[in-house]
């Protein structure tokens, strides 16, 4: 939306003889130097990798315990609670509602075994 406004302003300024203001010049520069949304949608980027140095600072929001990174599923695992938080584009989604359960309750597992 902002780029559309800047584009219209840039078009209007090109047709005038008065010197443009500093704000108008910034908009003019921004409208010509930024790639359009269509171009960025067309080019597919590889997903960002998770920076494992973050594990030093990240803890489970529910138990406040350290998490383990699982590269095969690209998740942060709380083994104590059996919760896996997804990592999307290199950013951990630490919202408990977004997490999935990694294993069943021990009582359920024992019932199924017998």
UniProtKB/TrEMBL annotation:
Question: Would you identify the family this protein belongs to, as annotated?
Answer: Belongs to the PREY family.
Q: Which subcellular locations apply to this protein?
A: Mitochondrion
Q: Does the keyword Transit peptide apply?
A: yes
Extract the Gene3D superfamilies matched here. 2.20.25.10
Q: Provide the Gene Ontology terms for cellular component.
A: mitochondrion
Keywords from the UniProt entry:
Mitochondrion, Transit peptide
Pfam families in the record, alphabetically?
Answer: Trm112p
Query: Any transmembrane segments, and where?
Result: none
Q: Which residues form the signal peptide?
A: none
Q: What is this protein called?
A: Protein preY, mitochondrial
* Keyword rRNA processing set for record: no
């Amino acid at each position: 939306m902002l780029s559309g406004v800047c584009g219209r302003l840039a078009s209007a300024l090109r047709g005038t003889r008065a010197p443009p203001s500093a704000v108008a010049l910034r908009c003019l520069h921004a409208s010509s130097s930024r790639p359009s949304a269509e171009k960025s949608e067309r080019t597919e980027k590889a997903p960002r990798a998770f920076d494992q140095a973050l594990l030093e600072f990240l803890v489970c929001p529910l138990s406040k315990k350290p998490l383990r990174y699982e590269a095969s599923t690209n998740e942060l695992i709380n083994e104590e609670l059996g919760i896996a938080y997804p990592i999307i584009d290199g950013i951990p989604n630490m919202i408990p509602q977004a997490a999935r359960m990694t294993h069943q309750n021990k009582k359920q597992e024992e019932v199924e075994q017998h």
